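Dock NAP; give full complex structure.
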Amino acid sequence: MTQTILITGSASQLARCLALRAAPPPWRARYLARGELDIADASQVARVLDKAAPDCIINTAAHTAVDRAESEPVRAWRVNAEGVANLAGWCRRNEARLIHISTDFVFDGLSTVPYAPGAEEAPLGEYGASKLAGEREMYTLAPRRGAVLRASWLYSEFGDNFVKTMLRLMEARDEIAVVNDQIGCPTSAHTLAALIWRMAEGEPGQDLYHWNDGGAMSWFEFAREIRRQGLAAGLLRRETPIRAISSAQYPTTVARPAYSAMDRSEALAEYNMPATGWRDELNRVIRALARGPRLAASQGVNADAT
Ligand SMILES: NC(=O)c1ccc[n+]([C@@H]2O[C@H](COP(=O)([O-])OP(=O)(O)OC[C@H]3O[C@@H](n4cnc5c(N)ncnc54)[C@H](OP(=O)(O)O)[C@@H]3O)[C@@H](O)[C@H]2O)c1
């Protein structure tokens, strides 16, 4: 019997990557944009979900602007914490599942080894704190019915993200400067989408997993590989110099974790996922960008990624 899986935040880069793949049986996917379902609006959540009657929800909706979350914490918490509580409460009352996406920003970055899912969280700012609160709301309100997937440095050919920003800046400027003392793991939204669909195929359970494409590096190192692949794909016309700088030379409203690599081994094993390689996954997105006009359409920087 077909069941409905509802995806929130349908304009997110993750939802757009989910939509490129067919939902596995028994699911029939239904995507709702913010205009159709504002997860922060409790009465709208109840009304829309009662009508749609999903058996599972994938929550990709989030307030992802890390620096803006400092100046508008109430908005960030309304979406990232209360919004998740709204969804989880409905799931509990209606025996539905919830797959929720969270972030490496729940960590303070003081570790020197990849964070395991059980590692202690200590967010540095409002974005990370609100996302962590969302995780906890989910566990409280939807016990044994929810899973949290934490990802880091998410990018794709859609939306705004570090890869697209780097390509655009490398075309526009004679030199760019990129931070070399923050270490993390790039994650293609496509491989995250593949893992989510695999999770949806399995049994519900309360779980927490980490996901990325298997390489830990600095933003500077990531930018150099983006340049190499961008040149090879014809997205860049020249080898724009990249200067390595420290976080102190690139002040942001809120500090980023200095080290946010996460250990994905449990997700690999539990869901029998292919051990994706970050260079190959970057290459898929670079090739998609080279095929289409999406680079030019992008504006600004994905704040979760920089
Ligand atoms: N981007 C990263 O580097 C990164 C890293 C780790 C984890 N994550 C997490 O991964 C998930 C997906 O990220 P992403 O980069 O794909 O997201 P994204 O492209 O930034 O899109 C977020 C989407 O959420 C929607 N949204 C915001 N508030 C909403 C609300 N109240 N109700 C419904 N929808 C709302 C936005 O709608 P509008 O289009 O109308 O603004 C937008 O389409 C998020 O949970 C994020 O926290 C992201």
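Observed: DSSP finds eleven helices and twelve strands in the chain.
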